[in-house]
Design brief:
Layout lengths: L8 E6 L4 H11 L4 E7 L11 H4 L11 E2 L3 H6 L4 E4 L3 H13 L3 E4 L11 H6 L6 H6 L1 E2 L6 H4 L4 E3 L3 H15 L8 E7 L20 E2 L8 H8 L3 E7 L6 E8 L6 H12 L5 E3 L8 H4 L5 E8 L4 E8 L3 H15 L10 H20 L1
Parallel strand pairs: 1-2, 1-4, 2-3, 4-5, 5-7, 6-7, 8-10, 12-13
Antiparallel strand pairs: 8-11, 9-10, 11-14, 13-14
């Protein structure tokens, strides 16, 4: 596949009508290294034939692109270097193999390629996986922990929102053997946008209330266990706000492990990561502090008598939990600054450098 105008990466997006799709479009439009070459409805119909700014008014004045009906031929006709799939799991499972065979880099925001065990799909996602070979090839797109593999991947399985908030906090601790082998308890609350844009009674403004759901049966539990290496008991909650996730994790530490050891482990792992912030002692994460950003904020506390760890993390489910992470993976895959399109300050700095270089060239 050839790069677009000015050497930019040509990117198409399928699933443009949804919340995650809208977030991704906004980022790709301001990305100096990307040419957004096509927008498609999920499953060939959602929003097809409609201007994207009619579906998402916040995009007015930024693009006049229309949403096309999704088909393999239509997507490939726009000659993308990469395709983002913000689609239902079954749609991604059908489209990704075709796009990969055509040499396109696929970033899938669904769960179609996150789990390595094909036998888990009928139980947790209600369909039998037809491409188990791609489950072995797909790279789990948790940018801070799998950067090297992402940089060479053909198919990137962008993590789920809940698992992102949990794996970033827990996996370094598991890998460093700081946790006892006992079960980790995870309680998370997500804003209503986590349920998607399709209306339902429980997500209506007058109906939404703080409440648990999917108790001991949520489909993200096996993904958390797979990516943390811990035995996870997970209870998700619906929160009466539009976006964001707050996760609280409880674990038992090995004898002699201190809070200083936990902080040192996380600090060493994330000190050079642009989007993970280990907060100062005594400052706890909040949904409001990460809203509309790609940051994951985290904090820890230890009861030394009980050897009990409390870890807390917060992300925006539509950004670090979906579109922002996909753009971060896109940047890593194509050798660009991972902040481009996500942090507008980086794009402004890059533009200023280009302008300076052009002026210097003209002067010489």
């Amino acid at each position: 596949m050839s790069a677009g105008r000015g050497g930019r990466i040509r990117v198409a997006l399928v699933g443009a009508a949804g919340y995650a799709g809208a977030e991704a479009i906004a980022m790709l439009l301001r990305h100096p290294g990307v040419e957004l070459c096509g927008l498609f409805g999920s499953e060939g119909k959602s929003g097809a034939g409609v201007r994207i700014d009619a579906l998402h008014p916040r995009l007015r004045g930024l693009t006049d692109l229309c949403v096309e009906a999704a088909s393999e031929a239509a997507i490939l006709e726009c000659r993308p270097d990469a395709v983002m799939l913000a689609t239902p799991h079954e749609a991604s499972e059908a489209l990704a193999p075709v796009l990969c065979r055509a040499g396109v880099v696929v970033l899938d925001l669904s769960a179609a390629f996150r789990l390595r065990d094909p036998a888990a799909y009928p139980t947790h996602y209600g369909f039998s996986h037809r491409h188990p070979e791609l489950l072995r090839e797909a790279v789990y797109g948790l940018a801070e922990l799998n950067e090297e593999a992402i940089a060479a991947a053909q198919l990137i399985a962008v993590p789920g929102c809940y698992p992102t908030s949990v794996a970033l906090a827990l996996r370094p601790l598991v890998e460093s053997a700081l946790l006892d082998d006992r079960t980790v308890i995870v309680d998370s609350t997500s804003g209503v946008s986590g349920a998607g844009r399709s209306p339902s009674l429980r997500s209506l403004f007058c109906e939404v209330s703080q409440s648990p759901y999917g108790v001991l049966s949520h489909r993200h539990q096996p993904e958390m266990a797979q990516e943390t290496g811990a035995d996870i008991i997970f209870t998700p909650h619906l929160g009466p706000y539009d976006r964001g996730i707050l996760s609280t994790m409880h674990a038992t530490l090995h004898e002699g492990v201190t809070e200083r050891d936990i902080r040192a482990c996380l600090s060493a792992r994330y000190t050079r990561c642009a989007f993970v912030r280990l907060l100062p002692e005594g400052t706890w994460p909040s949904v409001g502090a990460v809203e509309r950003t790609n940051f994951c904020d985290m904090q820890v506390a230890v009861d030394p008598v009980r050897r009990h760890l409390v870890a807390c993390s917060a992300i925006d489910n539509l950004v670090k939990g979906a579109a922002g992470q996909a753009v971060q993976c896109l940047n890593i895959r194509f050798g660009m600054d991972e902040r481009l399109g996500i942090d507008e300050r980086v794009a402004a700095h890059a533009a200023a450098l280009r302008t300076s270089a052009q002026l210097a060239g003209a002067a010489s």
